[in-house]
Amino acid sequence: MTVTEPVRTTVGGPELPQERRVVTDVPGPRSRELQARRQDAVAAGVASVLPVYVTAAGGGVLVDADGNSFIDLASGIGVTGVGNASPYVVERVHEQVDAFTHTCFMVAPYEGYVQVCEELAALTPGRHAKKSALFNSGAEAVENAVKIARASSGRDAVVVFDHAYHGRTNLTMAMTAKSMPYKHGFGPFAAEVYRVPMSYPFREPAPIDGPGAARRATQMIEKAVGADQVACVVIEPIQGEGGFVVPAPGFLPALASWCRENDVLLVADEIQSGFCRTGDWFACDHESVVPDLVTTAKGIAGGLPLAGVTGPAEVMDAVHVGGLGGTYGGNPLACAAALGAIATMHEQDLAARARTLGELMLGRLGELADRQPAVGDVRGRGAMVAIELVQPGTTEPDAALAAQVSAACHAEGVLTLTCGTYGNVLRFLPPLVMPEDLLVDAMDVVAANVSAAATS
Ligand SMILES: Cc1ncc(COP(=O)(O)O)c(C=O)c1O
């Protein structure tokens, strides 16, 4: 490919041309230069899916140092639902950065933190009195949800599911299912974490409905742990890194009933599925499940690091004064960004946008599955959609095919991600503000590359 003079775009946001444009090899010469510098300076354990170096992003595209414009089907792993450099986020952060950048809420508080907690109380499932505590990352929120559940119940055991992903800190590694790359060589892990089977319709050895799959999990809890030992059951209502696994209808409500009957707190990890991603404010809303605690992060703040744990006032207040916090938790810039992001979600009805984008993706990918037997499953909700690639006619995972398709999409200017316990899932997480014609173009590139790779 000819190397052309790069367009150095440094202003992002929705005004960026919404187009797929590949003007160099991928990665191009400038990105390769930066990659060479990175090899000497950045720890090898920190990987990048597509090593193009971004100079601007907005709407549905990322622009790199060589002037390539990629259609973004990643949203920074489900973060920039409102788009990159989203106007209200930028505006609020600018105002805040001019006012003050940090006091530490535990030292001298400020209104933004309180406002974000008020928003979380209003938006998360259930109309009861709720309180929140704010943190920096998803893993930190999950750790704190467990602390709160243990303090309020006086019990130790934490129940998690096959294929779960909850983070990379010590406790959340123990809660995460997959060894490589998340846990391998990093043990010993935290104790009192028990794993039970998930409802995974595509991979059930025999047909089982949602309530049946919930019974299978709760019976195992009763036999292997003892219900009266369990502080909390932690579940992603739609699993993220584990493969965008959507449990069978009735699974989550049955699990929630069992938790209620046994005084076990149900923690919904909505870190990837929350904030309009699945076509409602939270994935639990689709089946009217009201969890006890909800963990949030990612989409909450349009790209600034913020996370929360939200729950009934009496549960949240079970922790002694001073027992929760952290230097940066609920940083004023991140809170300002969250208020801008939430205002955008309301104003642009991004839950409805997620449903529209989801229908578009499921339609296109369903057509692909009809003609391409390597696509074993098409699933998802709202703008959280995936295809599972298999050896045709079986459920045998084909991770090599997923990697090949992803690399081919990257070369053509579409940023895709893989995931799943078996590495054979292609997942699609477009910004919710992505123009529909851009998403159609991206789906065409994905479909063409699946067909080409599967028949090669
Ligand atoms: C469901 C879920 N929980 C927790 C986490 C961890 O979040 P973070 O990477 O912000 O620590 C993630 C991140 O992908 C996630 O998807």
Topology, please?
Elements lengths: L28 H13 L12 E5 L2 E4 L4 E4 L2 H4 L8 H13 L11 H13 L6 E6 L2 H16 L3 E5 L8 H6 L17 E4 L13 H15 L5 E6 L15 H11 L3 E5 L23 E4 L10 E6 H4 L15 H16 L2 H22 L3 E7 L2 E6 L9 H13 L2 E2 L1 E3 L5 E4 L7 H20 L1
Parallel strand pairs: 3-13, 5-6, 5-7, 7-8, 8-9
Antiparallel strand pairs: 1-2, 2-3, 4-10, 9-10, 11-12, 12-15, 14-15
Helix pairs in contact: 3-10, 4-10, 7-8, 11-13, 12-13
Q: Tell how many strands the DSSP assignment holds.
A: 15
Report how far apart the termini are: 23 Å
- What overall form do the CA principal axes indicate? globular
Beta-strand level of the residues, as a percent range?
A: 15-25%
Q: What Rg is obtained from the alpha carbons, in whole angstroms?
A: 22 Å
Oligomer: single chain
Number of helices, counting only DSSP H or I runs of 4 residues or more:
13
Structure, explained:
The chain is of the alpha/beta class. Helix content is 36%, strand content 16%. It has helices at 29-41, 75-78, 87-99, 111-123, 138-153, 170-175, 210-224, 251-261, 313-316, 332-347, 350-371, 399-411, 436-455, and strands at residues 54-58, 61-64, 69-72, 130-135, 157-161, 193-196, 230-235, 265-269, 293-296, 307-312, 375-381, 384-389, 414-415, 417-419, 425-428. The strands form three sheets. A seven-stranded mixed β-sheet has the order 4-10-9-8-7-5-6, sandwiched between helices. A four-stranded mixed β-sheet has the order 1-2-3-13. The chain has a four-stranded antiparallel β-sheet with strand order 11-12-15-14, with helices on one face. Helix 3 packs antiparallel against helix 10 (332-347) and helix 11 (350-371) packs parallel to helix 13. The protein binds pyridoxal-5'-phosphate.
